[in-house]
Amino acid sequence: MAKKQLRFGVIGLGLMGREFGSAAARWCHFLNLDFEPVITGICDTNVALHEWFTDNFDSVKIKTTYYHDLLASNEIDAIYCAVPHHLHAQMYVDILNAGKHLLGEKTFGIELSAN
Fold first, then answer.
1. Could you count the other beta carbons within 10 Å of the beta carbon of residue 115?
2. CB within 8 A of 95, min separation 6: which ones?
3. What is the layout of strands, in order, in the sheet containing 78-81?
4. Sign of CA dihedral 7, 102, 65, 85
5. Of 108, 35, 40, whose CA–CA distance to 79 is shortest?
6. For the residues 24-35, what does the mean pLDDT come to?
7. Residue 115 confidence (pLDDT) above 80
8. What percent of the chain has pLDDT over 70?
9. I want to staple 87 with a disulfide (CB 3.0 to 4.6 A). Which of 17, 30, 83, 96 is the partner?
10. Which candidate, 82, 80, 91, 83, places its Cα nearest to that of 114?
């Protein structure tokens, strides 16, 4: 039986974004699960970082420098957001308002007002 795919977009393709990509690639080590993550979209303002993902994941359909492109896509169910802390509050809200599932590495922000 084919596993359900949870189609991820990754915003922020630096170290933590690549760590998420590596974790998604190792998902097969988890046994008896009926779903798997698939990276279908990537976003970073530094387009040089796109290459690592496109070299390692042939599932990438969307490459962009504007994260709202991922939020508007029907090819993406969830977003892994790996951007600097001061960007979390706005991006997390935008992701949730777009109806996407959010996987963030930290809280909404490092200041009380952001949380």
1. 10
2. 71, 79, 81, 102
3. 62-64, 35-43, 4-11, 78-81, 101-104
4. negative
5. 40
6. 85
7. no
8. 91
9. 83
10. 91
More confident call, 50 vs 28: 50
Q: Give residue for tokens 């699960």.
A: 33
**Can you tell me the distance from the alpha carbon of 75 to that of 18, in angstroms, rounded to the nearest whole number?**
20
CA–chain centroid gap for 6, Å, is 11
Reduced 3-state DSSP string for the chain: CCCEEEEEEEECCCHHHHHHHHHHHCHHHCCCCCEEEEEEEEECCCHHHHHHHHHHCCCCCEEECCCHHHHCCCCCCEEEECCCHHHHHHHHHHHHHCCCEEEECCCCCCCHHHC
